[in-house]
Amino acid sequence: MPRINLLPWRTELRQRRKKEFLVALAGSLVVAMGVAYLSKLTVQGWTSSQQSRNQLLRGEIAALDKQIEEINGLEAQRKRLEARVQVITQLQRSRPEVVHLFDELVNAIPEGVHLTEVVQQGNRIELTGNAQSSTRVSALMRNIDESEWLRGPGLEGVDFVTRGTERAAQFKVFAQQVSMVSDGEDAPAATPAQRPTGRRAR
C-alpha cells in the first residue's frame, strides 16, 4: 500500500487559515476604526449643534434680561409717579382742611384762653397756651369734642404759674383733625348753616 505524506498539505492549510485570520483581524480593525471615526464625527456634530443652540439661548436670555431690566425701570418710574400723584392729591385735599382747622380753632377757643403755639403732625394737633384757670382749659377741650373737624381731645399737662397778682394755667392739649376724605369717601362739606357762627361755651 502506498504511503501518502500529508505534512505539506497541513502546513499549507495552516498558513492559509493564518492569513485568513490576519485578514479578518485587519478588516475588523479597519471597521472598528471606521466606526470610531464616524462616532467621533457624529458626537462632534451633536456637540457643535448643541453649542449653537446654547449660544442662541444665551442671546435670547440676554435680550430677555435687558427687557426685564427695562420693565423694572418702568415699574420704578411708575411707582415714583404714583407717589408724586398721591402727594399732590393729599396736598390738594389738605388745603381746605387747613381752612377748616383754623376756623374751628377760632370758634373753639373760649374767653380767657390764649394759644402760644399750634403744632400739626399728620392729623395730630397740639395746642400750647395760657388760660385764666383750669376751667377754661376744660371748656376748650369740650369745644374741641363738639367740633365737626376736630375730635379726641386730650390733656398732656397743666402747670400753674403766678405772674404778679394773677395766677395762670399753662396747658398743652392735643386733638385729632378729621380728614375730609375717609376710607375713599368724601366727608360732607360744612355748609354755612352747619358751620358755627359764634363762640361756643365759655
Explain how this protein is built.
The chain has 202 residues and is α+β, with helices and mostly antiparallel strands. It has a domain at 97-179: General secretion pathway protein M, EpsM (Gyrase A, domain 2, 2-Layer Sandwich), CATH 3.30.1360. It contains two helices and six strands; from the N terminus they run αββαββββ. The chain has helices at residues 7-108, 134-145, and strands spanning 113-121, 124-131, 150-163, 166-177, 181-182, 185-186. A four-stranded antiparallel beta sheet has the order 1-2-4-3. Strands 5-6 form a two-stranded antiparallel ribbon. Helix 1 (7-108) packs across helix 2. The longest helix has 102 residues, at 7-108. Residues 182-202 have low confidence and may be disordered.
Rg over C-alpha atoms, rounded to the nearest angstrom: 50 Å
Helix fraction, binned, reads 55-70%
Task: Please name the fourth-level CATH homologous superfamily of the domain at 97-179.
Answer: General secretion pathway protein M, EpsM
Average per-residue pLDDT, rounded, comes to 79
CATH architecture of the domain at 97-179: 2-Layer Sandwich
Strand order of the largest sheet: 1-2-4-3
Might you state the CATH topology name of the domain at 97-179? Gyrase A, domain 2
Sheet with most strands: 4 strands, antiparallel
Number of helices: 2
Q: State the distance separating the first and last CA atoms.
A: 165 Å
Strand content: 15-25%
| Helix and strand pattern | HEEHEEEE
Structural class by SSE content: alpha+beta
Main CATH class of the domain at 97-179: Alpha Beta
Low-confidence segments, given as residue ranges, are: 182-202
Structural shape? rod-shaped
How many β-strand stretches? 6
